[in-house]
Amino acid sequence: MKFKTTLLATTALTVAAVSAQAQDMADSMTLVSWGGAYQNSQQKAYVEPYLADNPDVTATWDESSAEAVAKLRAMNEAGNVTWDLVDVVASDAMRLCDEGLAMELDHDEILAPAPDGTDASDDFGDLIVSDCFIPQIVYSTTFGYRTDMVPEGVEPPSSVCDVFDLETYPGKRALQKRPIDNMEWALYCDGVAKDEIYDVLGTDEGVTRALAKLEGIKDEVVWWTAGAETPQLLADGEVFMGSTYNGRLFSAIAEQDQPIGMMWDMQSFDLDGWIIPADLPEDRLARVLDFLYFATDTQRLADQAAYISYGPARESSAPLVGEHAELGIAMGPHMPTDPANATNTHLYDYEWWADNRDDLDAKFQSWLVN
Amino acid sequence: MTLTIIEPKPVSFVALVVAAAGAFAGLLVGTAHDTPFMGVLLGAAVAAVLAVVWLTVFRNERTARWLTFVAFGAVGFFYVGLMGGVIGLAFGAFFGWFIFWLGEGRYRAKLPPYTTAYQVFLHFLFRVTCGAIFIFLITPILVVMPLSFNAENFFTFTPEMLRLDPEGYSLKHYRDFFSNSDWQQAMRNSLSIAPMATLLSVGFGTLAAIGLSSEHVPFRRAIMAILISPMIVPLIISAAGMYFFYSRLGLQGTYWGVVLAHAALGIPFVIITVTATLVGFDRSLTRAAANMGANPLTTFFRVQMPLILPGVISGGLFAFITSFDEVVVVLFVGSAGQKTLPWQMFIGLREQISPTILAVATILVAISIALLTTVELLRRRSERLRGMSPG
């Protein structure tokens, strides 16, 4: 894993150097994101304020983050990169960086320092998992359940292992159609210690063991591929519990008043952030850098949390997280990073998955069809 | 003029057929209450008893039908509520009519008197099958419509909706469509791309069809096959090809790029429909026009065009709908600035299952129906004016 590298030698180039290019900036940007509530939070927290400060600039959204890697490859091959800034999950950023499709960055040079003067690279800390990646949020994949489908006389589910317990909690489950997270949860609930999960999963017996655990609930599983599916299935009462991104569950519970409860146990953290496509023309690059400097500063990332329950990636933003923009409820307790929610978490190992993804995907898919 | 003698049929026969229909209705109701088997038995029994009573004990059609109607409605209302009442009324109306329609032998009224029982059976089997296919095709579209009035942000028939409670319904998804700038931009894009693409398709397609139906053009079949190919080649292949080609030309991500791509997809439809109408076109008319001193252009617009117009219009309609419904090619050839309605719907479905999509779908269905009806009415009118229609 490429953690933040030591490019600090170039700190001589300061922010002033970036803003000095201000004369020659393109007046339009194409931003790529995920659509839905998440994109809306970006729009409200930093795109609208930025456009208000720069009235001659226009920003266009392209909701293509799900296929960003494939599309960037095609654009690169066609020699026609139309995107200026792309929102991707950390693992995609690493792939794009390795393939040379994303631009390598010096975080301290292009990003604002924290209000107390801490360098950006220290403020983001370990979350800068790739030289091309500028993290925005920490989100987690976790479980929600229908509160009105809990059998009588039984405690509501509180542990991830309740998902595998069909006797106490009968009913359908929604799980993501991929091995990541599911395999780890299965091993954990099969009695593997948390810090040994990846060692066990690295062996053939470990994979068999994880799949055997999943086999126990396979008949009751509805497999999902888009984050919107689980909230829909839960709202319909089609499933009793299901995994999805924590922000989706927050939205279904707090904004849509659905009878759904959160289960934070063994939530799996992941990161989402920006990459800049490689080899942008100079004027467009200058515009994007100007926007990025603004959009990733401490206050803007904290503002984003008023629209969606994802944790800001900067350490300095956490104390500034306030209330939900419309509902007026404090957002702190709904963040995946809140200490009360993060008592037992699962640290998803990017590096391990980068090495084993293809192999496990194949095994998982063939298990699915059998 | 009817020669068929309508006479009452034996009660045993009627009871049997009505019982079968009752079993089917019972299956539907029973499934909704998780006891399909009980539903079948009860449905068949109730229907058979009803048939026997109405045809033997109390044979007064008017009163009997009203009684069935009201009784079924009351039972439905009593056990389930408003929705059950409505369904009960529908069932009551059907069974009241069905029993006497069979019992009095009216079902033979429109059939020739010499048809055998087997032929009558086949006749109605055919009709029922057609109806079933029709329902199978249309139900997914119809289900969308009530759901689009959902008061919640999920694709769910909420208990309030099923109770026909006004609380469960709202126009908020329609409001969202008309007030949300993303949807409005998508609507504008669709409305500016589709007509232009249609115009190009119709122009080029009509010219190509006329050219290809003249006998002196060499390699007609080969040219035709190439022009039709966008219909046959998988869309994703055309889309990827266009993407790389248009990128080199600098057309990718531009308005004209999308218009040209959609025109290419629409041309085959125009060629096919216009070629079909040209088969019935008498070439001696153009010679006659030339004989009277009209130049080819005048001949085309004054003589040929009016006669092949129905083909041109329906081809144009297909081209319009192709462009209006197309999502694959525009995802490749367009950029975020040319987001059309189907693209916006695709995003909405993938990232956020919002009933706004259903509201849009309902509006689009309504527009399509209006469009097709208008064209059909215009066509009939012009045929009547020209005395081509027999009726």
TrEMBL record, chain A:
Keywords associated with the record: Signal
Xref: InterPro entries: SBP
Record has Signal as a keyword: yes
Signal peptide: 1-22
Pfam families: SBP_bac_8
Database matches in Gene3D superfamilies: Periplasmic binding protein-like II (3.40.190.10)
UniProt KW Signal keyword: yes
SUPFAM superfamilies xref list: Periplasmic binding protein-like II
The protein's name in its UniProt record: Extracellular solute-binding protein
Species, as recorded: Roseovarius gahaiensis
UniProtKB/TrEMBL annotation, chain B:
Subcellular location: Cell inner membrane; Cell membrane
One of the Pfam families matching this protein, by short name: BPD_transp_1
Listed InterPro entries: MetI-like, MetI-like_sf
Keyword terms: Cell inner membrane, Cell membrane, Membrane, Transmembrane, Transmembrane helix, Transport
Annotated TM spans: 12-31, 37-57, 64-80, 86-103, 124-149, 193-212, 224-246, 258-281, 307-333, 353-378
Protein's name in the database: ABC transporter permease
Membrane-protein topology: Multi-pass membrane protein
Domain ABC transmembrane type-1: 187-375
GO terms under cellular component: plasma membrane
Entry keyword Membrane: yes
Family to which the UniProt record says this protein belongs: Belongs to the binding-protein-dependent transport system permease family.
PROSITE patterns named in the record: ABC_TM1 (PS50928)
Organism whose genome encodes this protein: Roseovarius gahaiensis
Biological process annotations from GO: transmembrane transport
